[in-house]
Amino acid sequence: MIEIEGITKRYDATTVVDDVSMVIEPRTIAVIVGTSGSGKTTLLRMINRLVEPTAGVIKLDGADNRSLPGYELRRSIGYAIQGHGLFPHRTVAQNIATVPVLLGWDKARIKARVDELMTLYQLDPQAFGPRYPHELSGGQQQRVGVARALAAEPNVLLMDEPFGALDPIIRNKAQEDLLAIQKRFGTTIILVTHDMEEAVHMGDKIAVMDAGKLVQYAKPAEILARPASAFVESLVGASEKPFRLLSLGRVRDAVEKGGAEGEAIPGDASQRDALAELLWSGRPALPVKGADGKPLGRVTVDGLVKRAARPA
Amino acid sequence: MTIRFDKLGVVIAVIVAYAAFAAPFATFRANRIVPGEARSILDALPAVTGPLLLAIVLIAALIALLKTPLILRLAASVAALAALALLIGVAGSFLTPEGNTFARISPASGFWLLIFAFTLLLADVLTRLNLSPGARIGVLVVATAAIGLLLVSGSWNSLSILKEYANRADSFWAEGSKHVTLALGSLAAAVIAGLPLGILCHRVEKLRAGVLNVLNIIQTIPSIALFGLLIAPLGWVATHVPGAASLGIRGIGTAPAFVALFLYSLLPVVANTVVGLAGVPRAANDAARGMGMTERQRLFGVEFPLAFPVILTGIRIVLVQNIGLATIAALIGGGGFGVFVFQGVGQTAMDLVLLGAIPTVALAFAAAIILDAVIEMTSTKRREAQPA
Ligand SMILES: Nc1ncnc2c1ncn2[C@@H]1O[C@H](COP(=O)(O)OP(=O)(O)O)[C@@H](O)[C@H]1O
Ligand SMILES: [Mg+2]
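Above: query sequence and adenosine-5'-diphosphate SMILES. Below: predicted holo structure tokens.
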């Protein structure tokens, strides 16, 4: 659990983060969204004390984050910096091993962990371990950056626009990978982005920042249904709202009784994808199948349209 | 078929044609200070060897002139240089009258131009071959060994420079080692003092401009003036600080030369350290702190290795500069190869000047090649990561 209490950061006269309070539950993903310059990075960097707050307290599992020296605190918190920030003079394997080496793990344990993470991220340890960062594609560099942040098995992972520089297809893949890893290790993640789509997709809760202030902190559905201000509303994008709302739900939860013609859609797919498929193929209904391939029922245009309406 | 010319080859061919036919190959002097008489290639070499050398340099020049394969150009330049190196020795013995120990034979402008032309060709070939740093050092070692072999074999002993050497063999090596000690010692001192100073300037912005300006001003003081400025303070130290005099600290001699070279060396070391550290990608520094490195770990684990090639470039500048500048030390009794240069100038004995100048140039050249290779080796792996 991360408790941020009345955190403020001022540089001379300008207040960059203004009295922000929020609680991030363990094993959840909190996404901080906001326009560029709204103070997202600064807020994130106050959690691992790369930036010292002017006022306020941040507690990690109940303990003030100032109870340890900064460098020790930072070794216990994963940090994926904006634009990956890999060390150009170190190989991929050495980059990933950074924090375990600082923590003094023994060689065998470090090697096992590096190999495990590289395999997890579909980078062959033999082929990619000895390479230098400049020899990798952008997507690979980004994965190495996240693998490095995860190396010492931190409970908390801070990520600053980790997918910002990726093209859409690789970005989707990276998002899915991160969700899978978060489920598997139960890491608490705070992710900064300026992309509302990403926020709705990834976040258990979304924190919207504007000019240093936290203007709304709520579940994605709540943000979509009841934006706290005109600013949040504009960030959500009025014309996108129904589709973003649908993207939060799984087809499985919108199943109706009965059957339909054509190829079945998996129950795990998002309701938004199902609606898109229905509209595109011009059909009124689609069959739905479970993970085991058994038919679950059908989704209909009418049913999905009702779900896309503003919640009561 | 159209004949295609190599651009550099045209220059080389012109130089070779002039040097082979219009310029003297060797100079004959009755003793070491009278003006010399010029000898052409055909006059300076016995029977067959003269035309042979002419044929070799002309064929090599033709190979340089036309667009030919690199390997052929390499062979041509090496063959021409080897022939010149061997035959100048032959010319020496051939031109020296039997039993005459006063006569002096020295290479003349034609010889030096030919050496220059084919070194140019060789350098061009080596550049185009794009040799790895290790291979470049290998070439240097082979060239040094070949020259060493010629020297030891005695085939150049009839040349005037080596006659000057023979008269001063002991002092040559003593001054040589003084020269190297002076150049390397002041470099080491400059690195020991300059690196921390550079780090300090990088971290403390307020210091930076001030320190660099002072070092810049020192660089602009002419060396003679700097020696002069140092005489008084060092003399004072020698008389007032106990033990200083016994360490060899005096107003003239090695101490002021050492201090002057040290002061000249500081700017390149400090400036390159500052530039190198400033060039470390922000993201790498940020990541280092974010991963939990201490300031020390970040300095030695990230900043230093990334700035290293730039710092090494500064060290290269200093080393080459110091090897050259150490010559001046002789002016205030600091020793070094400069001793021969200034003696030679005083006696108008050009060969003696060359005895000091040639080893100095060779040392500087070798230092440049070695350090360039080291810089390349350290920087290839450290190329900056492309942004994602
Ligand atoms: N070290 C600093 N000194 C002065 N101003 C800063 C510093 N760091 C950030 N800022 C300012 O704080 C504001 C918020 O920055 P940041 O937290 O990076 O925003 P975001 O990540 O949301 O784009 C910006 O206007 C930025 O210029
Ligand atoms: Mg930012």
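Residues 383-388 of chain B have pLDDT under 50 and may be disordered.
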